[in-house]
Structures are given as C-alpha cells and as structure tokens.
Amino acid sequence: MKGLYTALMCSFDEQGNVNEKGLREIVRYNIEVSEVDGLYVNGSTGENFLISTEQKKQIFEIVKDEVGDQVKLIAQVGSLNIEEASDLAKFVTDLGYDAISAVTPFYYKFDFEEIKDYYNTILEGVDTQLIIYSIPALTGVNMNLEQFGELFENEKIIGVKFTAPDFFLLERLRHAFPDKLIYSGFDEMLLSASVLNVDGAIGSTFNVNGKRAKQIFTLAQGGKIDEAREIQKVTNDLIEEILNNGLYQTIKEMLKTQGVNAGFVRKPMKQLTEERAIKARELAKKYL
Ligand code: SI3
C-alpha cells in the first residue's frame, strides 16, 4: 500500500451527472501518463461531499472496473451519515478495493470519544483496513499524538492521510508508529514530508503532476535532497498558479488539453471564467 496515490478527480457533465467516459479517461491518464501507484477515490478532489450516495457507488464501480488490479485503490467512504459510511465501506469491500479511508467527522464539534466510535462503527463487520483522513484545515478536527495512538489500537486502522502543515506532529507520529502507514496530503510539502520518511502521498495535483511528485518522493528516499528540491520548486511554481486560478477547475482544464474529458465541477463550485480557462491552458502548455 506504499507509494503515490492520485486523489482522483471525477468528470461531471454540466448538469452534475457522472460522465462515465470522462471518468475512465481520467483513470487511464493517471495510470498510463502519471504512472502513480494507486488512486484515492471519492476524496475531496473527487467532490465527494457534493454528490449523492448513488453517485458515490457509481464512481466506485466505474473506477474498479477500469482499473482492475493494475494499481491499488483506496475508497474514501467517510460521511456525516454514519449509516452511509458503513454501507459504502461494505460496498467497496465487496468490489475488491484494497482499503477504505474516512475523513474525520466534521461540522459538529464531535469529541474524541465520538470520533473513535465513528471509526470503530464504520469498521464493524467489514473485512477491510482503514486509513484515517485527517485534514484539520477543512474539518476543524485537530487530533494529537495520543489520540492517533488510541485510534491505531484498532488493528484494522492501518494509517493516516496526514493533510496538515504540522511537521512536529508528523515526525512524532512517524517515530511513535513505525508500522502504520503515513501518507503526506499536501503536495506542496511533499519533499519535507518525504524527508520525515512518510510511506507515500495522496494528492490532487498528481492528476496532472504525478511524474514530478514521484521523482520528488523517490529522490528524497534515496537521499538526493538537492535534486528533489529542484523538482519541488517547479512543482510549487505550478501549484501556486493552480491555487490562484481555482484548484479543481484548473486541474480539470489542464487535463482537457491532454485529451482527457475531465468535465465540469459540481455546484456550488463555479466553473472557470474564460480568462481563467486560458490561464489553465497556458499552465498545461508550460508544465505538462
Ligand atoms: O481527498 C483528497 O482529494 C485529497 O487527497 C486532498 C489532498 O490532500 C489535497 N487537498 C485538498 C483540500 O484538495 C491536496 O492535494 C491539495 O489539493 C494540494 O496539496 C494543493 O494545496
């Protein structure tokens, strides 16, 4: 399960329906061009929190059908509706996904006991392994070392997708839990996380920048920090431009220049203006 995973985008049509052909193209591009080790399906980048349960299942099915056993698959099933999360966990396990992941429950101020119960409930009666999806900037849930340790006591919880700029906590986690999988979640901090010996990374920009991400990770693992830093610099030039232009929309537009029908974003996200679409195409020309 180690390595680089693309936080997979989903192609939607203008009405917000899943565009199956476009989704399959995104998957193929990630496997054949970006050459990532796996896909993280229905995460933030997949606009998961904007779609229905039926659409989530449709996406899980299409992706598994397209991938087969070519690369590893992690299914993000986390939801504020705990029955939905449990149902999706069973659904993807039956489909043959390699692991599940679940975002920490958000919006309401859940205490740690409630968070722990959420994970244990999702895993009840499902024969799979789970990766915690921690992204405090979006969820407001900041767990400390001891709390991660308590969650890790459930042997089915095999790791964490760590999307936070807290390198002190990341180092402490790495040191305290050498056998758990730690994935870096911020693509612009991949080198710094790799130096701390993470097991892999999961990122949105890998949809278009997967090759550079792989180089950064591999070079850092081999101790070639200067070379890795050069590539992280180019990567961050690109990420800065993407973030300024509209994260998911710009990545979709860049994919379109490569013949991949990445479609539209779902409302309430807004589509790119023509000016920003031109900018995205320029970025594709420069960086892809
Ligand atoms: O679930 C997911 O789609 C992710 O893995 C998200 C991932 O951590 C990304 N975060 C968000 C909020 O999209 C990052 O890859 C992020 O887009 C990137 O580092 C740019 O800031």
Automatic annotation (TrEMBL):
Quaternary structure, from the entry: Homotetramer.
Keyword Lyase annotated: yes
Annotated organism of origin: Planococcus notacanthi
NCBIfam families assigned to the protein according to its UniProt record, in alphabetical order: nanA, PRK04147.1
PANTHER family (alphabetical): N-ACETYLNEURAMINATE LYASE
Keywords of this entry: Carbohydrate metabolism, Cytoplasm, Lyase, Schiff base
Location(s), subcellular: Cytoplasm
GO MF term set: N-acetylneuraminate lyase activity
Protein name according to UniProt: N-acetylneuraminate lyase
Record PROSITE patterns: DHDPS_1, DHDPS_2
Origin organism lineage: Bacteria, Bacillati, Bacillota, Bacilli, Bacillales
Keyword ATP-binding listed: no
Reaction(s) catalysed by this chain's protein: aceneuramate = aldehydo-N-acetyl-D-mannosamine + pyruvate
